[in-house]
Predict the 3D structure of the following.
Amino acid sequence: METTTNSDTPLLKAAELIEEKQQVDGKFPVISELLHASSSGEYEVAIPAEWQVVTKQRLIPLPDALFEQYDLLECRCFMGLFPDIRRAWITVDHRLFLWNYEDESDFYSFEDQEQIIVSVAMVKPKPGVFVDSIKHVLVVATPLEVFLLGVSYNIGRLGGARGDGGEVTLYATQISVPADGVAMTSVVGTADGRVFMSGNDGALYEFVYQSEDGWLTKKARKVCLTSTITSYFIPTFLAHKREIPALSMVTDDERKLLYVLLQDASIKVYWLGTQGTEFILAHHHRSISNSAALLCPQFNEGTDATPFEIASMHVITTRESRTLSFVAITSGGCRLYFSTVKRMQRFYENSTLPTLPVREPDVFEVVHVRLPPDSQPSLGGGLLQSRAMRQMLNVHTAFYRNGSTIMAHTWNEDHDSIVGTAPGCAQILARIARQPRASLVEMSSVERIEGRTWAIAEVGLGEDIYELNDLVTVSSTPTRTFAVLTNAGVTILEKQRPVDMFRALIAQPTLRDAQLQEFITTYGLDETCAMCYTILCTEEFSQQMVSIQVLNAARRILFEYGGVPHFAETSAFGTNAVKAAAQAGNINTSSADSGVSVAERVLLSGRHNGLVIYLSRALQPIWKKHSITAQVDNVSSPRLHVGISTSDLVDVQERLRRLQHFINNNQRFVPDQINQMPVQPANSNLEAASLGALYELIIYSVEAIAFLCLLADFNLPAISSNMPAGQLKTLSGIEFNQLVCGERGRLACKELILVLINSQLKQHMSIDSLSDVLSKRCSSMFSAADVSLYKALESLKLAGECEEGTETNDLAAEALNLLTDIAGTLSIVQLREICNSFETLGQFGAVVTLSLACAAQSDPNNEAMAFWNDGAPENDSREIIYRKRLDCYKCIIDMLDKRKDTALNVKNLTSLPNTDGLFQFALYDWLLENDKSSLLFHMHGPFVEQYLIVEPRTVEKTDMLWHYYIHCDQFGKASFVQRELACSRDYNIDLSRRIEYLSLSISNAKIAVDMVREEEINELGTLLRENEDQLEIAQVQLEIQQQLRSMGDHETHANALDRRLFTVTELYDKFAEPLRLWDAILLIFKASNHEDSQMVEEVWRIILRTVLDDSQRTGLMAVASKVANLGSRLYPSAAAFPLQLIAGILVELSQERANEYIVGFVGDTLVQARVPHWAVFEVLNKLYMKNAAGPQSNSTVAELLAKEVASLTISWMESNQSGSIRDIVDSPNLVDDGMPVMDVDSALSQYIINATLNNNIDLKNELQRAQERLRRVF
């Protein structure tokens, strides 16, 4: 056992040792892991009588009265065992006898029928057919009928102990079926009451019965399961062949299977269905001997010289193995292991895998052959017999359960030899230490008994309490006992555990040192010392009146052979022992000091390690069990229950108390003068500290058990009936080890003690007696702080019973003084209940004082505040303290919550203590939750700004922050916070609200510029410019979002624009360009002032062409509307609204749609786009000059442009006839809107000349009219 240094407390170190040992015990391989090869046959035969696997305890001869009945035998006699009722049964012709072999002479006879009995079986009754006292049904088969007898069995006054077989009564049920001359040679039943019978005609039948006759069914009937419908119509003499009769049957209730052994040594497997109601032939294995021979060449049964016979069949429980399901024992003593799962599934046998589902078996095949041991071990003269020297067995009856095998071998006509085998735990563990995968090694022994064996059965407790590894069997578990029925009587055998062998060894009058050393070598020093503790401390041995000699020998071996702690290189057992210890994990392979060498690592003594082993196995039944559970009884709400039975608790407690008593009376656990090896003081101190921790664990465990028993005595379900759901959840599910060692368990104990106290106070009972009981039984759980707590509770109780006045205030003050001193020890549940009591008394100040004291004492280093300042990181150990303080503050908050509708104002709140920052933060949270944020602005404490700034930031708190800054006239800070909100990616803010925050930030920045110091102006100026630029881009983003939503099928993209503010590049690359949002592209060009004439022309042409070609729109009128709309947002941006380009496109469209064109379309469209008349004139004039002369001249376009200029001139003059334009301005060439009148007149003159030259009289006249009108006005 290695020393550990990384635990927090000695108690936790001791608990680690216990759990490590329990984990080692739990890793012992299951039987299928030991039988991984195709065959095996290794045995170690115990030569000393004390080491026998099974030992004969006594022979109970048949009563003389039964021998007299046997003398009257005329035809047939059968016998067997009913272990469930501790009876042997014997049939003599038509008479049935049930013999109570425990009482030796008592037997029950049944002679109420006259037919010869051919078979008898005891089965489970069908539910709902018999009264509750009938737990078993006796099936009696004769050649004429098969009938049922009800069996009532009452355990005797000694509880089924030795010599007490209980009382059996048989009841006639009047349930029978005709046998029709078929002898039912074998009868078995299932756990749910089905009864199967095999007849000598080769058929299988089911005895079906019910409580009464039905409409179409009889009360009882016999159903042939193996015949077909056609067989009823074919005469017997025409049948092809007769089925081979069955020899025996066994049922597997877990896997829902029925195994049938036939006379030809083949086995049929029937699937009974997941509900156990079917009957399907799943497999029929006809070549078992051949399969075994293929797996094991040494298997020689099934030849002419040695015929193959199966003596018995046995089911392997799923607890023993989930992949091996069945074992057949041959007449030669071989064990054939079968599996019903596929090969690949067998490779993954592991306790961590889920349980295999109950389903029809995939296969039924022999997977392992276990060769038999020798029937005459004394001939070998050694511990290990060779396979060649083994004598052939002649087995006629056998038994197998949970790894143990007992076979009856014919010795001679009058005697049998009982060959017993069981796994050699020590040998298997030794091999596991040397290699990762060990094979099965068994111990075997032979006992000769009188008579010929008829049946073998295990009596006493069921197999589920036993482990394959006998070393870990709980010391209070009874020895496995077997009854062997022969024609001479019943021989009682007991399986020897290692501790039984050790006890028999040291009980010898003269104990030879060589024998003891051999035992220690086999089982190890640690296990041997653990056996010494078992003998010295276990009630099992005290009840058996262990001799003083055995007790003294165990004590002497413990101290003389137990060793001392030592460095690895000074091991008394040499270098090999050190290596073995290292492999077994007994050497500490780590050290707190990296400079410690291997030679300085310490091995603790076998005395210490044996104590760990014994203690771990003593605690194992309850260590990992839930000590407190929440269960729903007959009421709707859950209640707390003690999760471990009182019998288990008391059993473990008694063993621990005896161990505690032994340690108290034997203080020689540290090295003493008996040992000859030198002991280093450091090593001795190390072991003494570990032993002290183990002793502390024993004490705490005893007290924890006493506490659980106390809870059971005080009716925990009743006193927890009104417990809040949160408290129920906290207290339930606590394992026993947590109750002993864990902080959660300690807190749970305190809360449960308070529950007990409250239950007493509610019944107006004094708590003094309860305090005394707790002090005596659970002193480690009942401290001085608990005393103060209970006194304070008593004062509060008295204060509640007094009338309001001075006495009430005095009692409340007394309770507060007591509670303030121990506030740090109060649980939240306790604090909440106490605060409710103070509140009921009107002591609101006491609620605040006590809650803040509890918070402060729970966190003396103020770790919770540091945790809060660090942003409350996940998986931080400080979170527990932080949560505890919040729960403390909640008591105050709850009180305020109840009074929030009363006169709660700034004065009330500012009077609360403001030195606890976390409390202030909790108070601010409450204000926000209750829509009282306005009060927060008036609390000019040191924590308001910190509360609103610290992580985790939320929209609400950040919004509150800039409001707080505005309230404090800090407009600059408010502007920065508003920009943060607008640009944040963490907050769920929609785009319109972000634009609003940008606008507010700009406004507050402008206000702050006039109020801040000169050195801060530059920072605010930068902020202002960035906000204005960002606002322009944000408005473009809003335009894109609105356009996407109007499209109807881009909601995802539209929602994405709410998440943050994008740059113009992102808006173009992610939205506008891929989604072909042409309007948005122009807006982006304007915002970024990006000039790309080719791209802009392409976009404009796409936009206007799309509008023009839309059949739902009105041609050029729709184009005019679109240009006007875009121009109002884009002009005068040359990058997004190039005037000449747009005018040219409009001219082209006018020519294309000449039938829709109206003179003035181009000019009016541009004017509606908010382009000034002068700018429109200039661009139209340029286009005219380009098309009127030169290589690109186009007379048609020139004529259209001339008309447009004339129309523009007239419309400009008409729009200004209201007098808003002065007749003539200071400049003779311009009017107040910038219209170049002289240039217009000159251009018209030029147009007229060109029209004259082109002989275009109509155009000339139109231009002259426009010029004349212009000249009249100007």
User: Anything to note?
Assistant: The mean pLDDT is 82. Residues 505 and 511 are 7 Å apart (CA to CA). The first strand starts at residue 39 and ends at 40. The two ends are 118 Å apart (CA to CA).
